[in-house]
Amino acid sequence: MSVAPTPNDFVPSVETQSLYRAALSGYATGITVVTTQSERGPLGMTANSFTSISLEPPLVMWSPAKSSLRYPHFAAARYFAIHILSQDQTELASSFARNGEDFDACDWSACPDGVPLLENCLTRLECETHDIHDCGDHAMIVGRVRRVVASEGPPLVFAKGQFGKFLTI
Questions:
Q1: Running DSSP on this structure, what letter comes out for residue 44?
Q2: CA 90/CA 82 separation, integer angstroms
Q3: What is the mean pLDDT of residues 109-121?
Q4: 164 or 169, which is more confident?
Q5: Exposure b/e, 74-88, CB count within 10 A at least 16 = b
C-alpha cells in the first residue's frame, strides 16, 4: 500500500519536486555572485549553493545548474571569483540572477587573469578551478582559493525564496 505524498511527508521524485524545493528553502544560506571571463566578456551568476570545503589546501565549492545558459562558461573557466554579498547588496544579487552580463550595475575591475572582481562585497575569493563533479542536474565546481579580500559587516541571506538579514540574538 503506497502513501500519497503530502507537503509534510513525501519521497523526493519528479512528481514531488516542488515540495522538495520548498522543504530545502527552509535552510538559510548566504548569497554570492560568482564571476569569470568568457569569450563573450565578463560573466556573473548569483548563487547560494556555496560552501567552504578545506582549510589546507584552501578549497571552496559552488553548484551551478547545468541547465543554465551560463553554466558552460563557468565549467570551462580556469579562474573565477566568488563574492560573498553584504546585506545591502540585494539589488546586485537580483541583477546577476537576471542578467549575467550586467556589470554596469556595479563597480568592478579585472584581475591579471581577466576575472571580473566586484568591489564593495563582504568577501571576495579569487579561485582557480580545482575540480568539477557531476551532481545530477547541477555540477559541483571546486575552487582552490588563491587570494582573499575580506571586510566586516552583516551578510545577505536567502531563505523561503526571499532575501533577508542576519540578526544576532
A1: E
A2: 16
A3: 96
A4: 164
A5: beebebbbbbbbbbe
The Cβ-side half-sphere exposure at 161, using a 13 Å CA radius, reads 4
Instruction: Write the CB contacts of 46 (distance below 8 Å, at least 6 apart in sequence).
Output: 31, 32, 33, 93, 94, 96, 97
Among the four given CATH numbers 3.20.20.80, 3.20.20.70, 3.40.50.1820, 2.30.110.10, the one describing domain 30-153? 2.30.110.10
The pLDDT tens digits for 122-145 are 999 999 999 999 999 999 999 999
Q: What percent of the chain has pLDDT over 90?
A: 76
Boundaries of every domain in the chain? 30-153
